[in-house]
Amino acid sequence: MDFTQEYSQKLVSADEAVRLIQSGDWVDYGWCTGTPDALDRALAKRTDELTDVKLRGGILLKPLAVFEREDAGEHFTWNSWHMSGIERKLIARGCSYYAPIRYSELPRYYRNSADPLDVAMFQVAPMDAHGFFNFGPNASHLGAVCEKAKHIIVEVNENMPRCLGGTETGVHISKVSRIVEGDNPPIGELGAGGPATDVDKKVAQLIVDQIPNGACLQLGIGGMPNAVGSLIAESDLKDLGVHTEMYVDAFVDIAKAGKITGAHKNIDRYRQTYGFGAGTKKMYDYLDENPEMMSAPVSYTNDIRSISALDNFISINNCVDIDLFGQISSESSGTKQISGAGGQLDFVLGAYLSNGGKSFICCSSTFTDKQGVMHSRIRPTLAEGSIVTDTRANTHYIVTEFGMVNLKGLSAWQRAEAIISIAHPDFRDELIAEAEKMHIWRRSNK
Q1: What Cα–Cα distance (Å) separates residue 325 from each residue in 219, 343, 418?
Q2: Between β-strands 96-98 and 76-80, what pairing exists: parallel, antiparallel or unpaired?
Q3: N or C: which end of the chain has fewer CB within 10 A?
Q4: Which residues, listed in sequence order, are joined to residue 403 by a DSSP beta bridge?
């Protein structure tokens, strides 16, 4: 069938497309690199006409036009599944709120929830010969979003890579209400920060030494996972696999170094499986039409059953703080929301269930505040209001530049001793004293 006629019938301007949105509606903005551009700007023009429009999405890579006005919060509210720095700024303005959920649960939430979804609008790759608009590197939960939404508006972007290989990778034109041809902006980029620091390199080396040939990798975003990826690319490791929530630039480097074959994967053999991707143009070009890649919803990539089915699964993620009980906070600092729960707990649990699997939570031992004062990331207890991302019962390996400890099976005093051993030396006596007060220290600190 030729879908050209249907395409022309549904093709409208962005201004006309957003007329579907009414006051009080729930409007989904898709996810990350798929966040709408022309449609967002068109909706911003209607600010004075609308009230209580509830927008939803996550990992914004650039500011939204609908929040440019100072009074935007009187008309629009942003509800985020996972925060970026842009979204954190909206919190301070009273325009944005985090929606706590395990990322892997999003597809089920959309399909089963009684909550309404009036309009979904997001960027897609151009329609193919079969009438499908590919989601790009955003399979994530968008298949379920499209099933739930009363109206779907797609904004076509010729720069969106076509990401293939799995399920729920696109939406058919028959399901689409309106088509908008946008200005084809470059796909939003998310860099890994500056070059790896000496601390990053020390942590990376400790972790890489634990990775066997044939392991299956999951990397989180940030300097340390990126440093691990760079070190893997330079290592003698071989026949590695990829099964990850987020595809990042480091995987491209590892693959181009010839380290990734997927030959030992128990499922999805020879495929690099991922739920979404955000990085630089180098990565988007690598994902585009690449038959080695497998784009899939997070209900699959982050499912503990999928993760645990893969032997020698290695999960590597960052955190904000760790306490002496082994609790990990990776999404907030006190009550200040930083990111989100994401899939970290799923990968911590799944990796431990994997035959030969290990999960690593890594961080620098300290950070320096704006006043130049150094603080320990290892604390007696998490800061008041901090969210526990990984419970103490689930934590496996913790890594700082001062060493690596395995917390599985350790009693409270053993945990405290192990965790303090990888804290910065300047804070160890203080931590020991606090551990004694909490009755989780067996040795004297005198």
Answers
A1: 25, 22, 10
A2: parallel
A3: C
A4: 400
At 408, which helix (H) or strand (E)?
none
Q: Is the pLDDT of residue 318 over 60?
A: yes
- Quick one: CA dihedral 28, 31, 35, 36, positive or negative? negative
Q: Coil, strand or helix: which one is 436?
A: helix
User: How far apart (Å, rounded) are the C-alpha atoms in residues 63 and 84?
Assistant: 10
Strands 170-172, 132-134: pairing kind: antiparallel
All structural domains of the chain: 4-181 (3.40.1080.10), 198-437 (3.40.1080.20)
Structure tokens at 163: 């990401």
CA distance 49 to 37: 20
> Which of the residues are catalytic?
245
Give the pLDDT score at 168.
Answer: 97
pLDDT in tens, 275-314: 999 999 999 999 999 999 999 999 999 999 999 999 999 9
Helix ranges restricted to H, 331-374: 344-353
pLDDT in tens, 98-112: 999 999 999 999 999
Integer Cα distance of 204 and 227 in angstroms? 6
- Element at 281 (helix H, strand E): helix 281-287
Query: Cα separations (Å) of 100 from 274, 381, 415?
Result: 22, 22, 28
Query: What is the distance between the alpha carbons of residues 127 and 170, in angstroms, rounded to a whole number?
Result: 10
DSSP string, 70-122: TTGGGTEEEEESS--HHHHHHHHTT-EEE----GGGHHHHHHH--S---EEEE
What b-and-e string marks burial along 399-409, b requiring 16 or more CB atoms within 10 Å of the CB? Answer: bbbbebbebee
User: Look-up: residue for tokens 């026949």?
Assistant: 239
Order of all β-strands in the sheet with 272-277: 293-295, 272-277, 241-247, 216-219, 313-318, 358-362, 397-400, 403-406
Q: 15 CB contacts (<8 Å, ≥6 apart)?
A: 42, 45
Q: Residue 225 to residues 220, 242, 278: CA-CA distances in angstroms?
A: 6, 14, 14
Token pair listed for 170:
């696109």
